[in-house]
Specification:
The complex is a heterotrimer of chains A (253), B (361) and C (183). Chain A contains ten helices and nine strands. Chain A is of the alpha/beta class. Chain A has one domain: Rossmann fold, CATH 3.40.50.970. In chain A, helix 2 crosses helix 8 and helix 4 crosses helix 5. Chain B is α/β, with parallel strands linked by helices and 361 residues long. Chain B folds into two domains: 182 residues, Rossmann fold, CATH 3.40.50; 111 residues, Rossmann fold, CATH 3.40.50.920. Chain B has a seven-stranded mixed sheet, sandwiched between helices. Chain B has a five-stranded mixed sheet with strand order 10-12-11-14-15, with helices on both faces. Chain B has a two-stranded antiparallel ribbon with strand order 1-8. The longest helix of chain B is centred in the middle third of the chain and has 21 residues. The mean pLDDT of chain B is 97. With 183 residues, chain C is of the alpha/beta class. Chain C has a single domain, classed as Pyruvate-ferredoxin Oxidoreductase, domain 3 (3-Layer(aba) Sandwich). Chain C is 36% helix and 26% strand. In chain C, helix 1 crosses helix 4, helix 1 crosses helix 5 and helix 3 packs across helix 4. The longest helix of chain C is centred in the first third of the chain and has 14 residues. Chain C is globular and about 45 Å long. Classes of the chains: A alpha/beta (253), B alpha/beta (361), C alpha/beta (183). At the B-C interface, strand 1, helix 8, strand 8 and helix 11 of B face helix 1 and strand 2 of C.
Chain lengths: 253, 361, 183
């Protein structure tokens, strides 16, 4: 049997969604971004909304997210994606607008923008990648960095007295009446990815129903920043991140 | 003739925006420009033209909403006053970098810092030299009447579209708060989706249809060679503006021995000063730059061959005077006179300054 | 014709709206007009003033140091603007609350008991129209019919039923203004 005999439609076990581009991702080995990108792309394909989806990318590792999803993109200033999304969604109310933001972008410099977009109940989806560290700039402390967790700007571990507490953005926005669906997921196992995809699908479905803001946190790893192997990162995440950032659906209205 | 009304500059610009077919306005209250968003919220243009009006949580957010809206190929506008514009510069730099048409209105008040709520012209540098980070320029128009506040919405936006570059209307507390007679233009329909696709389809993020590549609005280019190339393109655009878009108004310059140079409200006060000086037998003319970027460099250089000296009159410590000096290049004396911190110079003071600093100087 | 006017008093006396009606009346007779208020915290219960210019020609500066007419409605404004009246110009004031009356010898001074007349009319809100009427008696720069049109334009529709009362107040001002000094 030759290869050409194997490459047949009926033998196809897995196919990359056409919403993902063929560009090689710049993410580090073990990084969660690639998986989350893929899941969003699959949801866009399944909903057949590629022509009507506009992504807003952040500043952070996923600043170049626009290279990977085959849709129209806006690249925002640091933290301001929810402001761009607000205008885009208001001006084109029949489009599917989502922001893709990291923890520094969303929870630190963009705290005001995310709170107010959620509070206004903008009809958008927010994907929030939380790995407790600034990856792109070289592993500095994030607002979500756990107590005692070492980073390049908390080299002796995060000191609450010095830097305050890790910020639970997801619980915070769940309190706002403008949010309709708020959940925290992860993407380290096939099962976790399936749950994440279900949540992202639901979030995009909420746009159809004009239900307000859907907010999904993905607790993630950063092997480079955490200075651990991808495998050890997953273990560390489960042992340390999950207890503080518990997974599950926080709000579903 | 269009509809005649007595309006504040701030009200006129809001009404003009609705009539010009602006798609979205994003603002935040600050004195002395709050009437812009107040007028819009009272007018409810979303019921009439479909225009979106949002009171943002901050000037930072308002300007980034402007960025997002502009990225969709929509006509978008924001307005503020000096401290608020400082906050908007982040997004303005991105909008310039991403080459998007958009309109920013600055109803200037005195600074620095929280300064005063009274009128000033101390944001000239910020407006014409870029203001935010990076090598960029805004198209800057300076109205000197309520009528121009209204008219410049269309004038600036047409250029913003032509050059895919953000534009600014640099007004001040006088023009914003003053009421004058204004003739309003008739309503223009907003661009339809088809028109946006036709005009801006090569870049606007309206959704990737199969007939085109995906559009990415970004100011990021990590490869230095490409970023330099992008900057070359921007600079070529600014050069073309310098060559073709300069607007100015000259009064009594034919026989002038001395020249007053002033923009916006100051040019109105200088008109009066010019009348007073002419009554005294001083042959003085007035050159009023209407566009501050591009600046009427050529016209000033030519006048430097004719007059004995120039006085730049600004409600600032002297900002435009630097551009006049660059234009004149030492040919004749160029001095500055101005009051600031919210104080407005009187016509008499200007005549005195002209006599002291230029004629006797 | 060019008339440069400052109207100054307390916030709440209707200073700004009086100026607006005057300016609108000017537009109704094809004149150029400008209306430049003081603004900001000083408007919150403090003094308010507005510069109104009506002219047959294009108006240069909307901000002035000297005026053809000053309409003065409290002592602070009198202190501030008495000196700003051009020699030979007009100062019209309401003596209510004035402790030190105008002393210039080179200007025309008129008095209008606006607050008192408004009280007599049973409606304190007619105050500013009484003052306007007094001014228009001294300087009939806008025709009555244009004032009426100006009122229509500057008042929201729901207040149009009050136009007759306003016109009555303007007439009251006409009839009640007194000359104190002419030069």
């Amino acid at each position: 049997m030759e290869v050409k005999d194997i490459i047949k439609e009926e033998n196809l076990a897995y196919k990359k969604t056409k919403v993902l581009t063929d560009n090689e991702m710049h993410y580090c080995p073990g990084c969660t971004h690639g998986v989350v990108h893929k899941v969003i792309a699959e949801v866009i394909e399944e909903k057949d909304i590629q022509e009507n989806t506009i992504g807003i990318s952040p500043v952070g590792c996923s600043v170049l997210a626009y290279n990977y999803l085959h849709i129209d993109w806006q690249e925002a200033a640091h933290g301001r994606a929810p402001a761009l999304a607000t205008a885009t969604s208001r001006l084109m109310p029949d489009k599917y607008v989502f922001t893709y933001q990291g923890d520094g972008d969303l929870a630190s410099i963009g705290a005001a923008e995310i709170i107010h977009a959620c509070n206004r109940g903008e009809n958008i989806v927010v994907i929030f990648i939380n790995n407790g560290i600034y990856g792109m700039t070289g592993g500095q402390m994030a607002p979500t960095t756990l107590e005692g967790m070492p980073t390049s700007t908390s080299p002796y571990g995060r000191d609450i007295k010095l830097s305050g507490h890790p910020l639970k953005m997801t619980e915070l926005v769940a309190n706002l009446p403008g949010t309709t669906f708020v959940a925290r997921h992860s993407a380290e196992t096939a099962g976790a990815v399936r749950k994440l995809k279900k949540a992202i699908r639901k979030a995009f479905d909420n746009i159809d129903e004009k239900k307000g803001t859907s907010f999904i946190e993905v607790v993630s790893t950063c092997s480079s920043g955490w200075k651990l192997t991808p495998e050890a990162s997953n273990t560390w995440m489960k042992e340390n991140m999950f207890p503080f950032y518990p997974l599950g659906i926080i709000k579903d209205e | 003739m269009g509809e005649l009304r007595l309006m504040k500059g701030n009200e006129a610009i809001a009404e003009a925006a609705i009539r010009y077919g602006v798609d979205g306005y994003f603002g935040y209250p600050i004195t002395p420009q709050s009437e812009v968003i107040e007028t819009l919220m009272a007018r409810k243009p979303w019921e009439e033209t479909g225009m979106v009006v949002v009171q943002a949580e901050s000037e930072v957010a308002a300007a980034n909403m402007l960025y997002g809206g502009a990225a969709c190929g929509k006509k978008v506008m924001t307005s503020s006053s000096s401290p608020g514009v400082s906050l908007k510069l982040e997004a303005i730099s991105y909008i310039a970098g991403a080459e998007l048409p958009a309109l920013v209105v600055n109803v200037v008040r005195g600074g620095p810092g929280l300064g005063t709520i009274q009128p000033a012209q101390s944001d000239y540098f910020q407006a014409v030299k870029g203001g935010g980070h990076g090598d960029y320029h805004l198209i800057v128009f300076a109205p000197n009447s309520v009528q121009e506040m209204a008219d410049f919405v269309e004038d600036t936006y047409e250029l913003a579209i032509k050059y895919r570059n953000p534009a600014m209307i640099l007004s001040d507390g006088i023009i914003g708060q003053m009421m004058e007679k204004v003739e309003l233009k008739d309503f223009k329909p907003r661009f339809t989706d088809a028109e946006i696709k036709e005009k801006f389809g090569s870049w606007a993020t309206t959704g990737k249809t199969p007939d085109r590549e995906r559009n990415i609005v970004t100011s990021l280019e990590l490869q230095s060679e490409l970023q330099e190339k992008h900057n070359h393109k921007l600079q070529a655009k600014y050069q073309q503006m310098r060559e073709t878009e300069v607007r100015f108004e000259s009064t009594n310059t034919e026989d002038a021995e001395y020249l007053l140079v002033a923009y916006g409200s100051s040019s109105r006060i200088c008109r009066k000063a010019m009348e007073l000086a002419r009554d005294k037998g001083i042959k003085v003319g007035l050159l009023r730059p209407i566009t501050l970027f591009p600046f009427p460099t050529k016209q000033l250089a030519e006048l430097a061959n004719q007059v004995k000296g120039m006085l730049s009159v600004e409600m600032s410590a002297g900002q435009m005077v630097e551009d006049i000096r660059l234009a004149v290049n030492g040919k004749v004396p160029v001095e500055h006179f101005g009051r600031y911190g919210g104080i407005i110079h009187s016509p008499d003071e200007i005549v005195n300054a002209l006599e002291k600093q230029i004629i006797k100087g | 014709m060019k008339e440069e006017i400052i109207i100054a008093g307390f916030g709440g006396q209707g200073v700004l709206s009086m100026g607006k009606i005057l300016a609108y009346s000017g537009i109704m007779q094809d004149q150029e007009v400008s209306w430049m208020p003081s603004y900001g915290p000083e408007m919150r219960g403090g003094t308010a003033n507005v510069t109104v210019i009506l002219s047959d020609e294009k108006i240069s500066s909307p901000i002035l140091n000297t005026f053809d007419t000053a309409i003065i409605l409290n002592q602070q404004s009198l202190d501030k603007f008495e000196e700003a009246v051009k020699p030979g110009g007009v100062l019209l004031y309401d003596p209510n609350g004035i402790t030190s009356p105008p002393a210039r010898k080179d200007i025309n001074i008129y008095k209008i008991e606006g607050a008192e007349e408004a009280a007599k009319m049973g409606n304190p809100k007619t105050f500013n129209m009484i003052i306007l009427g007094a001014f228009l008696k001294i300087k009939p720069i806008v025709k009555n019919e244009n004032v009426e049109k100006g009122l229509e334009k500057s008042l929201p529709e729901r207040y149009h039923k009050l136009i007759p009362l306003n016109l009555e107040a303007i007439q009251k001002g006409h009839d009640s203004v007194k000359s104190i000094q002419t030069v």
